[in-house]
Amino acid sequence: MSLTQSIGIHVEGVHFGYPARPVLRGVDLTVRPGELTALIGLNGCGKSTLLRLAAGLLRPNRGRVLLGGEDLARLSRRATAARVALLHQSAPAVPGMTVRHLVRQGRYAARGPLGMLREGDDPVVHRALRDVGVEHWADRDVDALSGGERQRVRLAMALAQDTRVLLLDEPTTYLDLHHQLDVLRTVVRLREERGLTVVMVLHDLAHAARFAERIVALREGLVVADGAPKEVVTPGLLADVLKVAGRVGTDPEGGWPVCYPDHPLHALENENQFH
Question: What global pTM score does this model have?
Answer without folding.
Answer: 0.91
